Task: inverse folding
């Protein structure tokens, strides 16, 4: 589990960076956390990922579960952690606690509405750290329902897959938001903060032959023109992330029905260029440190050859590394600027399935997403 966090229930605010999915998602005041109402099955899956460390880099950091309900006693019986009220002297630290929750078996379409549950999973906000995050939610899988899904739900989701890119490609654009800013030029459907929002119907308008146009829109490319410059670097990094994710899932025996890929990259063009420049400076600085550490003529009590040749051995400057400074350097965490991030999300219908092989339903969508991005870069 990641570093511990704490906050008060009254401090939670509506989360406005949801590209697709259900209402009711919250955030803490810092914007670093996402509090997502969910069913116990999703909490259980996040808990189980600690036994699968190879997957952890490809999902949001998990901080545990909390109860959003008003009935403190009921929540405590369920084993959940209750958010403190304003009168509580100290907010408790959030951590995962095993528990149980009653979920009704009947199913009806939610149409993107709230999930009827008091439990919530606490995750990192993948969009935190970006100045203007561009966000894309790609729903994975030709089959979107789990084995325990009622027939009505199976029929509905199969129909959605059949009528969209889901059936053939194993992926569908579920929603996205892109920063237009000064580029909007009076365009319609632009929010006051300069974003254009795309709902699920945007993704359903594409066929397998035209789906690349949706990704062109996300990366703000001219139709049919290959990506260049910083945005090309961003896309190629996403491709690397997808291949790494594919490699992990190929080795796992699981089923993750209706999971999504969450893409985030810096949408402010100047901020993106600055981030790449800062990244280069950090890498160059780290390379110099490694080079100096490996150079036998620098540090570790060695005398500079030039000083020795000048006959100034008595006055020569001897570079001796302070062990304490070295420990501080090793402990110092290097923080790279936010450029792009890709995570696998939405595990309400995910489980481990020993003996059943890898999740080809999921992998089909991941591979086709990689192929689409490859076509954007040439």
Result:
């Amino acid at each position: 589990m990641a570093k511990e966090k704490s906050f008060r229930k009254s401090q939670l605010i509506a989360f406005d960076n949801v590209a697709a999915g259900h209402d009711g998602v919250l955030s803490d005041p810092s914007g670093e956390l996402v509090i997502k109402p969910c069913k116990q099955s999703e909490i259980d899956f996040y808990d189980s990922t600690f036994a699968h460390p190879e997957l952890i880099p490809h999902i949001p950091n998990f901080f545990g579960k909390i109860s959003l309900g008003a009935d403190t006693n009921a929540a405590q019986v369920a084993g959940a952690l209750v958010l403190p009220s304003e009168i509580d002297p100290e907010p408790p630290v959030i951590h995962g606690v095993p528990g149980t929750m009653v979920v009704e078996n009947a199913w009806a379409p939610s149409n993107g509405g709230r999930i009827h549950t008091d439990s919530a999973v606490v995750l990192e906000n993948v969009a935190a750290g970006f100045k203007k995050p561009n966000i894309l939610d790609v729903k994975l899988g030709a089959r979107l329902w789990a084995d325990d899904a009622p027939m009505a739900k199976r029929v509905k989701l199969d129909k959605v897959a059949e009528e969209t890119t889901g059936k053939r490609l194993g992926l569908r654009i579920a929603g996205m938001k892109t920063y237009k800013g000064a580029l909007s030029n009076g365009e319609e459907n632009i929010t006051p903060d300069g974003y254009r929002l795309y709902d699920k119907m945007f993704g359903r308008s594409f066929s397998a032959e035209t789906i690349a146009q949706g990704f062109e829109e996300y990366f703000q490319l001219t139709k049919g023109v290959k990506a260049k410059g910083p945005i090309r670097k961003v896309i190629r990094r996403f491709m690397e992330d997808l291949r790494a994710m594919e490699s992990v899932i190929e080795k796992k025996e699981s089923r993750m029905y209706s999971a999504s890929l969450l893409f985030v990259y810096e949408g402010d063009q100047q901020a993106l260029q600055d981030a790449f420049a800062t990244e280069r400076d950090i890498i160059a600085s780290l390379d110099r440190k490694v080079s100096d550490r490996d150079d036998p003529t620098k540090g570790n009590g060695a005398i500079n050859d030039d000083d020795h040749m000048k006959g100034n051995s008595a006055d020569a400057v001897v570079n001796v590394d302070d062990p304490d400074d070295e420990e501080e350097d090793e402990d110092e965490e290097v923080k790279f600027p936010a450029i792009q991030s890709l995570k696998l999300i939405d595990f309400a219908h995910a489980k481990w399935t020993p003996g059943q092989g890898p999740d080809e339903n999921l992998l089909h969508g991941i591979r086709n997403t990689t192929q689409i991005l490859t076509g954007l870069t040439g």
In short: Residues 70-111, 300-323 have pLDDT under 50 and may be disordered. The longest strand covers residues 171-179. The two ends are 39 Å apart (CA to CA). The chain has eleven helices and twelve strands.
